């Protein structure tokens, strides 16, 4: 990897930290709730509770994404590692370490696993992951980076070649233009021998997708509502949680899931540092977009972006 831009990093020693994340949160919340329709960035789902709830989602029978990706990784990681010969693994939006084990084990078996750099917005989650992985891989240098990948981020220098993994369909949260910008930024951080591994959910039967975001146990609903609970806790807001309903639907024309919180009655919310927000009955706050990809369309698009498909 190339050296990261140090201005984006506070302090020279790991874990690297993002500047003023509370200021950023206030800015994003003020901006999102003043739009029409109102929206909140899905990156704010992942406080400690939200990360736990997401873990729970990944174990639901309806949520096929995580299981499908794990199976694919298990089946395909050997030829990928053989082709790339990576010595470092950078994992964007690291989340839990299950997939990390699959990749690091294969790297080690292939003869080189020097550094692992998990990059995530959730500091607590990252720290826990780092502790666990240091125990499992005492010979690998583990350098967590607390960073918001929706903003330009820097990476510490690590041994080449680097495999940069962006898994879990996190790319789905970004509308086309932002996704292209993010991928271009990552490409700019990569050296000539580094390679990129992307995990994205594919377009499929609408009923299967809809079910994955509307589980009968209501874990996804709780995960969705947790974003308001977080604003109540961290920004002293007074969102009446019981007055919001979880709604998630798939748009076949836009190839995306939309997740909303719908107000059951008209009300006002006060966020002291932002002001008063008014919601009509039935008005919604959009909390997430989850784009589904098309393998053919992506490989047709890739050459135009100046990257060659890896062929896996
Ligand atoms: C982590 C963004 C891939 O979009 O499927 C799960 C988040 N939202 N259930 C997704 C999520 C509702 C998830 N990603």
List the helices and strands and how they pair.
Elements: H1 21-33, E1 38-39, H2 48-58, H3 64-84, E2 88-92, H4 98-110, E3 115-120, H5 123-136, E4 141-142, E5 145-146, E6 162-166, H6 176-189, E7 195-198, H7 206-212, H8 219-235, E8 244-251, E9 256-263, E10 267-271, E11 275-279, E12 284-291, H9 295-301
Parallel strand pairs: 1-12, 2-3, 2-6, 3-4, 3-5, 6-7
Antiparallel strand pairs: 8-9, 9-12, 10-11
Bound molecules: N,N,N-trimethyl-histidine (AVJ).
Report the count of strand segments: 12
Mean pLDDT figure = 89
Q: How much strand content do the residues show?
A: 15-25%
Instruction: Report low-confidence residues grouped into runs of 5 or more.
Output: 3-19, 303-309
Distance between the termini: 22 Å
Helix content: 25-40%
Radius of gyration of CA atoms, rounded to a whole number? 20 Å
The biggest beta sheet is recorded as: 6 strands, parallel
Can you give a write-up of this model?
The relative contact order is 0.16. The protein has helices at residues 21-33, 48-58, 64-84, 98-110, 123-136, 176-189, 206-212, 219-235, 295-301, and strands at 38-39, 88-92, 115-120, 141-142, 145-146, 162-166, 195-198, 244-251, 256-263, 267-271, 275-279, 284-291. Strands 2, 3, 4, 5, 6 and 7 form a 6-stranded parallel beta sheet that branches. Strands 1-12-9-8 form a 4-stranded mixed beta sheet. It starts with 20 loop residues before the first helix and ends in an 11-residue tail after the last helix. The chain is of the alpha/beta class and 312 residues long. Helix 5 links the parallel strand 3 and strand 4 (141-142). Residues 3-19 and 303-309 have low confidence and may be disordered. Helix 2 (48-58) runs antiparallel to helix 8. 38% of the residues lie in helices and 19% in strands. N,N,N-trimethyl-histidine (AVJ) is lined by residues 57, 65, 168-170, 172-173, 213, 220, 288, 290.
